Amino acid sequence: MTGHSRRAFMHAAATCSLLALTLSGTAALADDHTVKIGYAIAKTGPNATGAGITTLPNYQLWVSKVNEAGGLAMPDGSKRMIEVVEYDDRSSNEDLVRAIERLATQDNVDIILPPWGTGANLAIAPLMDRFGYPQLAVTAVTDKAPEFAARWKRSFWMLGGGHDYAVGLADALTAARDAGTINGKIAMVSVADGFGIDLVNGARPAFADAGFEVVYDKSYPLGTSDFAAILNEAKDSGADSFVAFSYPPGSFGMTKTAQSISYNPKVFYIGVGGAFPIYAKIADGKQQGVMSIGGVNAESEAIQTYFQDHIDSAGAPPDSWASAITFASLQMLEQAVERVGLDHEQLAAELSTGTFDTIIGEVKLEDNQLRDLWWVGQWQDGAFKGVNPADKAGASSPIIPKPEW
Amino acid sequence: MIALGVALVGLVALAALPFYLSDYGLGLMIGMAGYVTLASAWALFSGQTRYISLATVAFYGVGAYTIAVLNETMAYPAALACAGLIGAGLALLVGLSTLRLSGIYFVIFTFGLAELVRQVITWFEVNVTGTLGRYIFLDITAREIYWQLLALGAFTIALTAWIMRRRLGLALRVIGDDETVAAHSGIDLARTKLTAFVLSATIITLAGAISSPRWTYVEPLIVFNPNVSFLTVIMALLGGANRLWGPLFGAVPLFLLFEWLSVQFPDTYPVILGLLFIGVVFLLPDGILGGLARLTGRNGKAAR
After folding, report:
1. Nearest CB partner across the interface for B24, out of A43, A105, A126
2. Do the chains contact at B267 and A90, CB–CB below 8 Å?
3. pLDDT tens, position by position, B50-95
4. A112 — contact with chain B (CB < 8 Å)?
5. Could you tell me which residues come within 8 angstroms of residue B43 by beta carbon, excluding any fewer than 6 positions away?
6. Is residue A257 in a domain?
7. Min distance A98 CA to chain B CA atoms (Å)
8. ipTM exceeding 0.95, yes/no
9. Are A234 and A209 in contact (CB under 8 A)?
């Protein structure tokens, strides 16, 4: 080996030993007076949009509300201010996993809040379990939630699975068909990506069981921007119901296309993005009757206050699907801490068995999952209201047929 | 021989590190070992031949996906072997069809390759298997992942050192300097390039396969993250892509820098990444090691 590379290697060795020293010497000392709450979330990269709409504003709103009220209440009646440790996971699971390790073992935070997205929540679940932190996974839609809750005892799954949403939709459509409002045919499109596939796989059997005939069933690649062909074929299919399991760009694009080709099915259902506050603008104010995933009980005073607080804090209203649930999960955490303190084992047990008073009403988890959710919502008079399950408290009755654009 | 001894002692020291580090420290070491491996493997082909490849994540993702598909049906070592074979096969296929391209055409092709592989897997999953996300439930600890990556990284550097002393290394360097001259001096261009490309791609595939158990859940959008390709290139270039230890010298400081940036400036990271890219290309065209060699008055070429 030449002299040069020998020196190079000495440099390498020196760097490594230096690094090892730095790493072992910086274990943070926890401050007894504050509660350290940490999270790693996508602030840059493809997941940043979703995280920035649904998750981050709620974390910020909650922390500022708690701190304004003097801090997080402890079982002994004292209050401790929240100190936030925040990292960017750059939408990369490798970075995310490392950030969680950092929060747990370097920063020694008291509580870790979950990241945004199904993949991200699954990526950290084994680590959260190993470090013993409770994980309130809100923005994770997975049919395997029961399995995961059993595998990782301190994980909580709060947004249902694709199957639930599909069955809810089939249920809502069945009611309309039995009432003679719509025919038994459905035109269905789905985005060829995780969420679209989960939903369409749930929807095919659900529609078949409900006696519907899916006359048009097409999947389109992620990133598609021209929906004219798809919508024209759906229009010609003879189906009264149009169902799209789409992501926001697709949901928005199809809405605009349907308006421009005057496609007026009696049911117009779109996927993610339909419950976003911006949807009203996308639909040019003609969102009345559009159905989508999620919903809120718009009559509830707690929800109305929450919407106003969110506008004051983030400058925009929250989305009407996972935002309120995210905030409710933080309220659960707050109340659980007040009852049992910060011990992870007791905290997890309390979250699992306790009953909590939140903006989405009284919450009690079943097998570590939130099952009392809105599966289908609809834009009615400027708000995105929950319509299915029809027997859930605060359910609005669906407007079918949807008024023309 | 002394250098070899020092390298071995260093390797043993690195292998013993997990016993002294916190989980986060170990996470950092995994990240560094991963990127040193990727950058070194990338440089094994691209650094020598100067064919800039942006296909790193195509192979990396294929490795991760192979484990995700096979982890429930076969033992981990067998799945790892399959990943390596699939990576080599894919590289052979891609290499045979594209190594005739050069310059910017090659760069664009390799960039497109990652997207192509992602779309093909997506199409297959949607239309044939009907699922997209896959789960990896393997009982592999972070330490074991670290050791595997460390071994793979050490192997990559050793392989590069060995190749650089062989005819193959010389041939690769001649190709990098001037392909026409190389052809005229009787070098079998296709075979030489293909050999290095397949070796490099196989290592990258294995790196993806080894890292994947850390993510638990994979889907194409997660594993084919183009940032991996960009980071690999910039790390190798920063250190000096045509030098044995160059990629390591690029990967370690950049990795630590990014880690620090994600804490200090979480919102501006992509901007800084872009500026760094430009800075490295303009200010350090030969990499840190090349720059150092120039500063100390040594002839950069002789020290290769």
Report:
1. A105
2. no
3. 888 999 999 999 999 999 999 989 999 999 999 999 999 999 999 9
4. no
5. B160, B236, B241, B242, B246, B247
6. yes
7. 5
8. no
9. no
- A245 touches B: beta carbon within 8 Å: no
| CB atoms closer than 10 angstroms to residue B197 | 24
* Domain boundaries, position A131: 34-160+300-364
Range of the domain at B65: 21-225
Residue A32: band (very low, low, confident or very high) from pLDDT cuts 50, 70, 90: low
CA distance B74 to B80: 10
Residues in chain B within 8 Å Cβ distance of A23: 21-22, 24-25, 28
Minimal CA separation from A164 to chain B, in Å: 17
Look at residue A397 and tell me if it is in a domain: no
Contact A4 B122 (CB under 8 A): no
Q: Which of B124, B211, B216 has the most A C-beta neighbours within 10 Å, making it the best mutation to test the interface with A?
A: B216
Work out the burial of residue A13: count CB atoms within 10 Å of its CB; fewer than 13 is exposed, 13-18 middle, 19 or more buried. middle
Alpha carbon dihedral B278, B282, B285, B288, in 10-degree steps, equals -70
Residue A399 belongs to some domain of the structure = no
With a pLDDT cut of 70, the percent of chain B lying above it is: 97
List the single residue in A with minimal CA-CA distance to B137: A126
Over the stretch A101-147, which tens digit does the pLDDT of each residue have? 999 988 999 999 999 988 899 889 999 999 999 999 999 998 889 99
Q: Determine the Cα–Cα distance for residues A8 and A230; give it in Å rounded to an integer.
A: 60
Sequence letter at residue B165: R
Is residue A235 in some structural domain?
yes
Residue A123 in contact with partner chain B when CB distance is under 8 A: yes
CATH number of the structural domain spanning residue A80:
3.40.50.2300
Q: How many domains does chain A have?
A: 2
What's the pLDDT score for residue B298? 57
In the stretch 13-72 of chain A, residues with CB closer than 8 A to chain B read 13, 15-17, 19-20, 23-24, 27, 43-46
d(CA A136, CA A116): 11
Select the residue from B23, B56, B294 to test the A interface by mutation, using most A Cβ atoms within 10 A: B23
Same domain, A177 and A55: no
pLDDT digits (tens, 9 = 90+) for B217-247: 888 888 898 889 989 998 998 888 888 999 9
Residue B166 lies in a domain: yes
> Is residue B163 in a domain?
yes
- Give the chain B residue nearest A16 (alpha carbons): B14
The SS3 call for residue A396 is coil
- Cβ separation A118–B216 shorter than 8 A: no
Q: Residues B147-176: pLDDT tens digits?
A: 999 999 999 999 999 999 999 999 999 998
